[in-house]
Write a sequence for this structure.
């Protein structure tokens, strides 16, 4: 299990995830591309303006990590999970830009860090040893626009790209 959690995106005994879009199945084959992961990868490419390496250029985490069918209990758990897990994750992460996907995650982050509800991006916020900017986009499964170019002003996207350098 250590290999899976620590080297999921490369460098381990197995190729657990391929191209950031397919996961290794128990029979040794790979899953069909995961739509959510494809969307996340596309947003990372858009943000960086180049091809990206999963696990190095970008990573995924969730506000509430326990799995739930139909998000049962997620709303009730999100405050506790932000305090218990997400803050520690952000403190040790090297991410300068944290892209928050979806309305529930947006609400939890904006509430925790006192970010105005209408903001598409935050001011720089010190978490751990690093300053970070939060960017808010619709969930990859949302209907309608989901890209940086369609959801943010050009100046906001440029601000994120500059902050990454």
């Amino acid at each position: 299990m250590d290999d899976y959690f620590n080297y999921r995106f490369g460098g381990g005994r197995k190729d657990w995830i391929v191209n950031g879009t397919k996961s290794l199945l128990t029979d040794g084959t790979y899953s069909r591309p995961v739509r959510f992961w494809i969307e996340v990868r596309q947003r990372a490419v858009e943000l960086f303006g180049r091809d990206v390496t999963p696990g190095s250029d970008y990573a995924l985490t969730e506000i509430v990590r326990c799995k739930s069918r139909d998000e049962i209990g997620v709303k009730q758990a999100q405050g506790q999970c932000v305090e218990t897990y997400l803050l520690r994750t952000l403190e040790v992460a090297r991410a300068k830009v944290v892209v928050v996907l979806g309305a529930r995650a947006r609400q939890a982050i904006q509430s925790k860090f006192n970010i105005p509800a209408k903001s598409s991006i935050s001011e720089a916020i010190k978490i751990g040893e690093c300053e970070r900017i939060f960017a808010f986009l619709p969930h990859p499964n949302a209907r309608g626009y989901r890209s940086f170019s369609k959801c943010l002003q050009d100046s906001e996207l440029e601000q994120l790209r500059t902050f990454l350098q």
